[in-house]
Amino acid sequence: MTTPIGPVVLFDDDYHMYVLPDRASAEAWWEMPDEYALGFDALARPLRMAGEPHQVTLELSGDHSAEADLRRLVADHYQRFLPGQAPPRGSDLSDFVAGLPVEGE
Question: Which residues, at least 6 apart from 4, have a Cβ–Cβ distance to it below 8 Å?
Fold first, then answer.
């Protein structure tokens, strides 16, 4: 399998969304692997997280696109955590992902 393409979109165990510029940034930023629920790279390929606290790794768990799942989870995040704001509306996946707020920007 290939390396995840950034940005990466991660969801914690409460399904709060975090968008990080790339795999290395995500691995440096994420502290507890047991708080991770789901994640996707910029091509909506699913990610898995492994490792110990403060030493996590991200890798692809498949080559298939799970775009519908990513879009649904992003919409759920906006509804739960950002009421009154609308998620990106890009019909193209790259436009949709580019419209997500990246941590620290």
Answer: 22, 23, 41, 42, 45, 47, 58, 59, 60
CB 4 within 8 A of CB 28: no
d(CA 18, CA 29): 10
pTM (2 decimals)?
A: 0.93
Partners of residue 19 on adjacent β-strands = 9
* DSSP single-letter state for residue 82: S
Do the Cβ atoms of 33 and 50 come closer than 8 Å?
A: yes
The tokens for 30 are 């994420």
Using the predicted structure, report yes or no on whether residue 105 has a pLDDT greater than 80.
no
d(Cα 82, Cα 88) in Å, to the nearest integer?
Answer: 13
CB neighbour list of residue 53: distance below 8 Å, 6 or more residues apart: 31, 32, 33
Catalogue the E-assigned strands of the chain. Answer: 8-12, 17-20, 36-40, 47-52, 55-60
